[in-house]
Design goal:
mainly alpha; 5 helices; 78% helix
Length: 167
């Protein structure tokens, strides 16, 4: 079976070529492991053609709100223990006999609560990273996938830095 290519219309050939080149470019972008010219071109077109920068702003606002909320919770823990410590010290100043280990127990409990809070902060910030990664995956931003791999995160940070400079 021989195909006579001369009878194929030029516009069909151009369309097939364009589709092939687009698929090849998608493969290159999907398999990119560094910031390449193709990645930069794709980023540029995403910035122009999608709401990428708005999504970044929304993610930033969301993270800022979460950070403020968590910081307020941490400060509340510190304030609660400061108040308890002040109460113990006031008793001492008034001559009330206070168990010397009471302050140590209070400090230990405070450290334990703050440690738990710090773990919560890390967990919540990890959630924010995953949320941003998923938003960027949905927009097909090169080098973005939901991951905790340090090398991938470093590449993603490079892209984020470039995008933040555009805000």
């Amino acid at each position: 079976m021989n195909i006579d290519f001369s009878s194929i219309r030029q516009d069909v050939i151009n369309q097939v070529r364009a589709e092939y080149l687009q698929k090849e470019e998608e493969k290159v972008l999907k398999n990119a492991t560094s910031v390449t010219p193709e990645v930069l071109v794709k980023l540029g077109s995403l910035v122009k053609e999608t709401n990428l920068l708005q999504v970044l702003k929304d993610c930033k606002r969301r993270q800022d709100r979460k950070e403020k909320e968590l910081f307020a919770q941490r400060q509340a823990i510190e304030a609660k223990f400061k108040k308890q410590k002040d109460a113990i010290l006031t008793k001492e100043m008034l001559g009330v006999k206070v168990d010397p280990s009471e302050l140590k127990k209070l400090e230990k409990e405070k450290d334990k609560k703050l440690h738990i809070m710090d773990l919560l902060v890390l967990k919540e910030m990890d959630k924010e990273v995953k949320y941003l990664q998923q938003e960027f995956v949905n927009l097909e931003v090169p080098l973005f996938r939901v991951t905790q791999d340090p090398k991938q995160l470093k590449l993603q940070q490079k892209i984020l830095n470039m995008l933040q400079d555009m805000l």
